[in-house]
Amino acid sequence: MSSAAPGAAPGPDTAINRPMITIFIMLATIIQALDGTIANVALPHMQGSLSASQDQITWVLTSYIVAAAITTPLTGWLCDRFGQKNVFLVSIAGFTIASMACGVSMSLAQIVGARLLQGVFGAALVPLSQAVLLDINPREKHGSAMAVWGMGVMIGPILGPTLGGWLTDSYNWRWVFFINVPIGSLAFYGILKYIRSTTAARRMNFDMFGFATLSIAIGALQMLLDRGEQNDWFSSRETWIEAIVLTMSFSYFLAHTALRPAGKSFFDYRLLKNSNYVTGLLFIFIVGLVLFATRALTPSMLQSLMGYPARIAGLVTAPSGFGTMMAMLVVGRLVGKVDLRVLLAIGFSVTAFSLWQMSRYTLVLSPSDIVWPGVIQGVGLGLVFVPLSAATFATLTPEMRAEGTAIYSLIRNIGSSIGIALVQTLLVRNTQIAHSSLVEKISGTSPAYQDAMVASTYNLATQSGLEVINGEVTRQASMIAYVNDFWLMLIMTLMVIPLLLLIRPPKASMPVAMDHAAMD
Fold it and tell me: Can you give the pTM of this predicted structure?
């Protein structure tokens, strides 16, 4: 893939254009991030409208995730070949048209095909937005730029379920896709008007074998993670096939990349010589694994155990996004003034505290009991996300940024996928274990059954009584499993903090001229 050109950048009036560029870039970022979750709550409505089975309708989500994951590593090469502005325009135009196609789809095959196109065209939007924001801002403002970018990336997953539920209930499921059309069109206009075209750095050959093997490996991994729990993991032949394909493809990719000269392979392994960048990849993987996975637990807990409708569950969890945004605004001003490792340590500690609060959840919770731990977790995520991005790219040269940001986004998404698969699998297994353990303790001689009201409500001698007590045992077992997941995430978060010593703070004397080179 090699290093990408420093691509898209404004002209000499950068200071005037920078706010407008930022606004339009973030519009593109938000709709791409939004589309990863906005369709989730609309799936039952799509299922009925498109006459699809429960298994078939999940391909609406899987197709998008797999297509985006496969295409993301291609971003650097495309920018190197065609320039950032051209890639940005094609991506946002294709994404907008694909969104319209999703909205007018009349069959499952049509919407899955349109979602594949959405994933392909949308894959470059997040890494490109990050690269352009780094290019148009001097180094001393990178913290603030990453705060703005982080808010855009986080707003989508946080507001997606709530907005999707409202659009579906108020209109119909097609509007979760139609909403992208005016926003995407506005973003296209702004990028066309305000970002200056640049000449591609090199006309290099494309490493087709490297791209093909990496794409197959990523696709197999995403399929394995997305469908593993549904297929009971390695009890299924499909999972074994995906695991074998993943192992073989990635092995071929590594061998092929190692044997090719630097700069001529699909992945430019010179990126791995930058220790801060490699450390940043490790941490963003952990952030995806722990923080994003935890965010997937609370909505399902509220809906499955406490009877919250999807829209209300979204409203209760949405305030965590405000915590994230507030923290990002504050920490963006501190980057460059405070040691990044200190900010990261505070962020992970705050996150650990929120997870400790969540580990004390019971089946009797008020909305405020959910909101405040979520807000605190959002603050922790904001304190981690911005300095981590700044530290990762602090020592990366501008010509390496497009590829660097693409790999960064890919690793974050893979970490998130693995984390979600992990917590969901543990949730199912721990529920079964807790259920068996609780059932063993139930008998007519238990002290609790000596109470007349309890004995009449949970009558072991009747079918209805057995059903009632089984339902209650299942709820209690599920709650135990959720709490165990929160404890696991808490322990993993605390284990990360000592690893912060691996990060080298960027030197204050590092020249900023190369940042401005992309803008002049």
Answer: 0.74
